[in-house]
Design brief:
The chain is 50% helix and 23% strand. By secondary structure, it is of the alpha+beta class. Strand 5 and strand 6 form a beta hairpin.
């Protein structure tokens, strides 16, 4: 019996809100218990398509819906950046973020925590964060996004 992808994904969203699901295997087992067999590959694809995140839970991690976690995390990171960011400059595919003294590490963590797909990574000094964009075209967009957080 073929199950509808949308129905399966809706069930996954409901289960993630109800249960502390820590692994793809656990999610596949819960689906099977409800008469919806799914391979690990299918579950993995569903997790990616739904944008589920692994978030801290007790001393482990669990899956969560992005809408629940992202807005709260985004606000926290925006507040951190607004407090420590002094200037933003673009050079090729690099974005240089100047911070208050000793603010670069927390700013770098906040930028990493945003999980922007166009950011390849960050490197922090004492008062400077180097943000590496995936392309030259994306660097100005990243800089504009950062400036909008000030």
């Amino acid at each position: 019996m073929r199950h509808d992808k949308r129905a399966r994904q809706a069930l996954i969203q409901a289960m993630v809100q109800t249960y502390a699901i820590e692994t793809q295997e656990e999610l596949a087992e819960l689906l099977a218990e409800r008469g919806i067999p799914a391979t690990q590959a299918t579950v993995s694809r569903d997790i990616k398509e739904l944008g589920l995140l692994k978030v801290p839970y007790q001393d482990r991690h669990r899956y969560a819906l992005p809408s629940q976690q992202v807005s709260a995390a985004h606000e926290k990171f925006r507040r951190i950046l607004s407090e420590v960011m002094v200037d933003v400059v673009v050079s090729e595919n690099l974005v240089v973020v100047k911070t208050l003294p000793a603010g670069a590490n927390v700013a770098s963590e906040a930028i990493d925590g945003m999980h922007w797909e166009d950011v390849a990574g960050t490197l922090a000094g004492d008062n400077t964060v180097l943000v590496v964009a995936r392309s030259r075209q994306e660097a100005p967009l990243i800089a504009d996004r950062l400036r909008s957080l000030r």
